[in-house]
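User: Here's a chain of 124 residues. Predict its fold as tokens.
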Amino acid sequence: VQLQASGGGLVQAGASLRLSCAASGRTFSSYAVAWFRQAPGKEREFVAVISVISRSGSSTNYADSVKGRFTISRNNAKNTVYLQMNTLKAEDTAVYYCAAAYSVGWDIARYDYWGQGTLVTVSS
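Assistant: Prediction complete.
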């Protein structure tokens, strides 16, 4: 599967942005999809993940730093995963990457497929 992240930009603190991760391939619905981010001079870190959609729906998990402000969702019909980011802070500034794996987790090594990243800059 190939992934393409988009939606980044320059915003002021307190604003909102929605990132999109568009996937190619008919098996997109079989993958868990996560967002990671990497700030300048820092290691890449987990942001959020969404599982595949089962009979009971999909599950999500978030890093503590974004819980309550970010929401991850997916639309399998559009082969797209979204990251709605509200109440953005300067410390959210980073390149955001989407990634896909066959199972849910926050460890980078689990993810076999990565998008190219989209830059989010939050000015204070």
